């Protein structure tokens, strides 16, 4: 369970060669019918998510009646510890499933933010706003930064989130002079402290990103956040959407306050806050692992292209069927999503199958247990070097687990590789792709 998947191990054995295929080759490989939206089917998925969330709330409201009635007389609870065990078990079950249901709201709102479920701008954005607001996510604000991430994915200079720290961030000596003792002095930590830092990231990382741009783009000034309409993240014409997002959050928090006043703060914690924290955990876990992996490159501008950046992500079978069902393929088919962000999530598995053969060795999949992968990336993706057009994360010992095939990269450039040629599409294809970023 806690070992690297064979696909990950195979990548470790290969020096990295950036893809040279073209975006047009990928688009030509995908059947045109899978690009189409099905509003009726989309509505079914939205209603399904709402149904399960309500179902889990009903289950939560039934916990005390079930326990106090000894499961309606079916299971005798004769001791105090029987009652405590039953109550604790049922609340744990509720928190697990409701946390996943809350995350499903975020995941389907993500799809709505890309405009993939309906042909109507209003349908996509009103539903996305309502679902995101319920889980205290600023829909229009995150939509702006997330779509900017898609346009510049894995570009060191321009990407929006999970941008790697540089060597200079840790004030390490230059790599030519750095010793084992230098790395140990700055980066060595106890396993307990590592777990505490992981807990902080998983529990609070989402809000640290929203409020102070933690691990966001370095090009923004201090104080950048997702709540001020005048934040550097947003253009003038986007400010009204940010204001609406803020109003939605204030309204939702007011409803939660009224609920707590009526039913008690402990009820708010049990029914909403714990699942909400778990929802944030899933958001951070999934998005962090999309692009933070020791075997996946980051590019500087001279080697970056949209295709290369989009290929620099990993498909993972997060939670198996649960991830497919509730997270709407956001982890299972993330490579396809970056190439075809305008395609509905329910068609992404077909897109994945279509493009795998074209990408070849540059299609990244990792069957490593997702929780182990989280620990591996958290501990091994520490920093990147200040120089280098294609770079990999280095660990706390200053070592990258994968090398760049420099000779092959130079040969690719000699035969005329250019970002514009690699990303060239027809006008209609480019318009479809751009529609996912509006």
The main sheet comes to:
2 strands, antiparallel
- Structural class designation: mainly alpha
Helix share of residues? 55-70%
Number of helices: 18
Order of secondary-structure elements: HHHHHHHHHHEHHHHHEHHH
Strand order in the largest sheet: 1-2
Mean pLDDT: 94
Question: Alpha-carbon distance between the termini?
Answer: 41 Å
Number of strands: 2
> Taking Cα atoms only, what radius of gyration do you get, to the nearest Å?
23 Å
> What's the shape?
globular
Beta-strand percent range: under 5%
Regions with little confidence, pLDDT below 50 for 5+ residues: none
Q: Can you put this structure into words, describing what you see?
A:
With 438 residues, the chain is mainly α. It contains 18 helices and two strands. It has helices spanning 6-13, 23-29, 39-68, 80-113, 121-134, 139-151, 180-187, 191-212, 239-263, 265-291, 306-311, 321-326, 334-339, 348-359, 370-380, 406-414, 419-422, 427-435, and strands at residues 298-299, 390-391. A two-stranded antiparallel ribbon has the order 1-2. The protein is globular, with a radius of gyration of 23 Å. The two termini are 41 Å apart. The relative contact order is 0.16.
Short note summarizing the structure:
The chain has 438 residues and is mainly α. It has helices at 6-13, 23-29, 39-68, 80-113, 121-134, 139-151, 180-187, 191-212, 239-263, 265-291, 306-311, 321-326, 334-339, 348-359, 370-380, 406-414, 419-422, 427-435, and strands at 298-299, 390-391.
């Amino acid at each position: 369970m806690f070992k690297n998947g064979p696909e990950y191990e195979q990548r470790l054995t290969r020096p990295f060669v950036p893809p040279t295929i073209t975006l047009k080759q990928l688009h030509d490989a995908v059947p045109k019918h899978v690009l189409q939206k099905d509003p009726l089917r989309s509505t079914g998925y939205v209603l399904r998510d709402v149904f399960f969330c309500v179902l889990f709330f009903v289950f939560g409201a039934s916990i005390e009646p079930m326990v106090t009635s000894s499961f309606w007389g079916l299971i005798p609870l004769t001791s105090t510890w029987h009652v405590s065990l039953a109550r604790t078990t049922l609340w744990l079950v509720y928190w697990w499933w409701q946390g996943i249901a809350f995350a499903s709201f975020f995941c389907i709102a993500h799809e709505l933010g890309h405009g993939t479920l309906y042909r109507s701008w209003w349908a996509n954005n009103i539903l996305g706003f309502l679902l995101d607001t319920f889980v205290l996510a600023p829909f229009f604000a995150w939509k702006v930064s997330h779509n900017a991430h898609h346009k510049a994915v894995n570009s060191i200079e321009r990407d929006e989130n999970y941008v790697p720290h540089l060597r200079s961030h840790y004030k390490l000596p230059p790599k030519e002079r750095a010793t084992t003792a230098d790395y140990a002095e700055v980066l060595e930590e106890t396993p307990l402290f590592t777990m505490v830092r992981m807990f902080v990231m998983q529990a609070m990382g989402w809000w640290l990103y929203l409020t102070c741009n933690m691990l966001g783009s370095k090009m923004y000034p201090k104080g950048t956040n997702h709540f001020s309409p005048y934040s550097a993240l947003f253009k003038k014409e986007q400010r009204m959407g940010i204001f609406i997002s803020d109003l939605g959050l204030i309204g939702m928090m007011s409803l939660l306050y009224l609920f707590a006043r009526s039913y008690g703060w402990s009820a708010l914690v049990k029914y909403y806050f714990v699942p909400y924290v778990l929802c944030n955990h899933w958001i951070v876990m999934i998005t962090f692992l999309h692009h933070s992996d020791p075997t996946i490159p980051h590019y500087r501008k001279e080697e970056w292209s949209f295709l290369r950046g989009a290929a620099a992500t990993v498909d993972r079978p997060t939670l198996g069927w649960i991830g497919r069902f509730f997270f709407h393929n956001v982890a299972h088919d993330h490579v396809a999503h970056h190439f075809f962000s305008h395609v509905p999530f329910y068609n992404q598995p077909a897109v994945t199958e279509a493009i795998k053969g074209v990408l070849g060795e540059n299609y990244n999949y990792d069957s490593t247990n997702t929780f182990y992968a989280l620990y591996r990336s958290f501990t091994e993706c520490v920093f990147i070097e200040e120089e280098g057009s294609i770079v990999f994360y280095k660990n706390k010992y200053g070592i990258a687990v994968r090398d760049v095939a420099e000779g092959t990269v130079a040969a690719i450039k000699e035969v005329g590789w250019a970002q514009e040629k690699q990303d060239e599409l027809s006008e209609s294809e480019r318009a479809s792709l751009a529609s996912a970023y509006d």
